[in-house]
Amino acid sequence: MTVKECRLFGQLFEEMLMKRSVGSVVMKIFGMVLVGGLLAAAVLAQTITAGGAADPMDFKILYATPQDVVEGKQVALTMCAGCHGSNGVSTQKGVPNIAGQRPVYLHLELKVYQKGGRGNKSMTNTVKYMNDDAIMKVSAYYASQDPAEPLRSTSKADVGKPNAMTAGKAAAAACGGCHGDAGVSSIAGTPSLIGSDPKYLIAAISAYKSGERKHDMMKALVSGLTEAEVSNIALYYALQAPDRAKTPAPGNVAAGKTAAASCSGCHGGDGGVSVNPATPSLAGQEAQYFIAALRAYKDGARNNATMKGPATAVDEATAKNLAAYYASQTPKAPQVGKPLSVAEWAERCDRCHGVNGNSTDPRAPALAAQRVDYLERVMLAYKKGERKSKEMAVMSDGLDDDLITGLSNHYARQKARGLAYMILPLVPLKK
Ligand code: HEC
Ligand code: HEC
Ligand code: HEC
Ligand code: HEC
């Protein structure tokens, strides 16, 4: 492919990007893939939001010439190599690899540093007085370099951390003897734990811990649990297949159903399936526990302003009927998303960052073979809002520390593909 043809495609690509950014919405684009000088049309779904109108300067780098790259190298050797290495492969902790990084991205980030937008003093001071031309050339130089080798590590520990669900199951092992392995009780007086929102279960466990809900045995059983364990346990039970408690429920179901009319406003009209996370579901609940709970609200042993009134209005016979009615109802699992594993998360990230972190969009950074310490740090920075990006703020919101470590290790271990892999019909930067 000649330089002239490449430039033509640079223009085409630029036009596509410009058009898309005007709409400023998440859109799909169709890109052309350039492989080994042959043009293969391929459909690539990209979902990056282009904020505002694109500055034509941002894409100027797509027209870099071999001469620009040679000049960029001079800038790199004098100003950047001390930290990023002369070839863009960093050997210093906290300093990212920039070899083979996507050119428009490099250019854009350097402009962000210039304005102090990433809060890193050493980078801001380095690039503060550089002119646009030098920034463009040094970006073209580093983009043209061979990317770093992936992190080689035989340790599975960091990528294979159990997710919240697995951790919850392990922590709940101590509860199964009474509450049933999957949270369905077969012991009279012991509640089932399925069918309620995790928020309710977390609140109930904290109430035992603090002594606000008085029950010495449950207090002793849960007081050693960390906050993370409690939330994992609650998630584990919320995701179990719900079933009715396996204990007898004497009482008149029909009479109970009539009496339940006054409860359904809060506990759910659908046989006691609550839609409010703060209100427990009653469908399928163990009958003896149910009766004891009403008694406890009534006499104040379970101090709750909301339930005091309804419980006081119910006599012993009605309580028994209500218990029989609710125990006969079919519980439903609350609406809770199953936590994703590192691999499942990575699939989502790859939508923008490319297969295994090899971005095909010149504006989206490649993540493959990036330094693990750097990845971890910037992902935390997005999460805390220290580094600003609309896309990444949304994406990092649901990530906890374990997932950040897992994803960083995942990407650091991927084989990085340099410029030849990209959609971008760039002028061949290497001679
Ligand atoms: C004093 C050491 C130092 C020097 C000199 C330096 N950098 Fe950096 N650079 C860093 C550090 C540290 C970071 C990570 C900062 C952060 O987290 O925002 C960084 C980040 C970057 C990034 C962002 C990479 C990414 O993936 O987002 C680019 C691009 C970059 N540097 C290019 C350059 C260029 C080009 C030069 C020379 C003109 C240069 N740097 C000089 C230390 C340096
Ligand atoms: C020795 C039996 C036993 C074990 C073990 C046990 N529980 Fe309980 N649990 C009970 C009983 C009995 C109650 C009812 C207490 C009450 O009346 O407040 C209860 C109540 C609860 C409740 C309140 C349910 C509701 O609907 O409000 C939660 C939540 C709970 N337990 C969680 C746990 C967790 C988590 C563990 C394991 C760490 C655990 N329990 C271990 C017997 C047990
Ligand atoms: C105004 C809303 C409201 C009404 C009406 C109401 N409840 Fe409740 N109920 C709640 C809330 C909120 C809780 C959780 C209180 C707590 O944290 O202890 C609760 C808890 C319960 C529990 C304890 C469940 C468990 O898992 O520990 C039972 C049993 C119960 N209600 C039965 C009833 C019955 C029977 C009626 C009708 C006679 C009724 N409720 C009416 C709001 C209500
Ligand atoms: C909707 C598109 C999109 C998705 C999905 C997405 N990202 Fe990003 N990501 C971006 C963009 C755009 C940037 C550059 C933002 C900036 O300028 O700070 C970025 C930047 C990053 C960076 C900084 C790279 C560097 O070199 O400094 C990391 C790390 C990162 N993303 C990781 C992830 C991970 C992990 C996921 C999945 C949990 C993910 N991203 C999902 C669009 C996305």
Structural class given helices, strands, pairing? mainly alpha
- N-to-C SSE series? HEEHHHHHHHHHHHHHHHHHHH
Mean of residue pLDDT values: 84
| Shape, per Cα inertia axes | elongated
Number of domains: 2
Gyration radius, rounded: 30 Å
The CATH architecture classification of the largest domain is Orthogonal Bundle
Query: How much helicity do the residues have?
Result: 40-55%
CATH class of the largest domain: Mainly Alpha
Most strands sheet:
2 strands, antiparallel
Count of helical segments?
A: 20
CATH homology-level superfamily of the largest domain:
Cytochrome c-like domain
- Tell me which ligands are bound: heme C
Q: Report the uncertain regions.
A: 1-9, 15-53, 424-431
The percentage of residues in β strands lies in: under 5%
CATH topology group of the largest domain:
Cytochrome Bc1 Complex, Chain D, domain 2
End-to-end separation: 13 Å
If strands are numbered along the chain, what order do they take across the biggest sheet?
A: 1-2
Number of DSSP-assigned strands: 2
How would you sum up this structure in a few lines?
The chain has 431 residues and is mainly α.
Description:
- This protein has 431 residues and is an all-alpha fold.
- α12 (253-259) packs across α16 (316-328).
- It folds into 2 domains: 3-153 and 344-421, Cytochrome c-like domain (Cytochrome Bc1 Complex, Chain D, domain 2, Orthogonal Bundle), CATH 1.10.760.10; 164-328, Orthogonal Bundle (Cytochrome Bc1 Complex, Chain D, domain 2).
- It has helices at residues 3-23, 66-79, 81-84, 103-114, 121-127, 132-143, 164-171, 176-179, 198-210, 216-222, 227-238, 253-259, 264-267, 287-299, 305-312, 316-328, 342-353, 372-383, 390-397, 401-412, and strands at 32-35, 38-41.
- The model is unreliable at 1-9, 15-53 and 424-431 (pLDDT under 50).
- It starts with a helix and ends in a 19-residue tail after the last helix.
- Strands 1-2 form a two-stranded antiparallel ribbon.
- It is built from 20 helices and 2 strands.
- The structure holds heme C (HEC) (4 copies).
- One heme C (HEC) binds at residues 174-175, 177-179, 189-191, 193, 201, 204-205, 215, 218, 221-222, 233, 280, 289, 292.
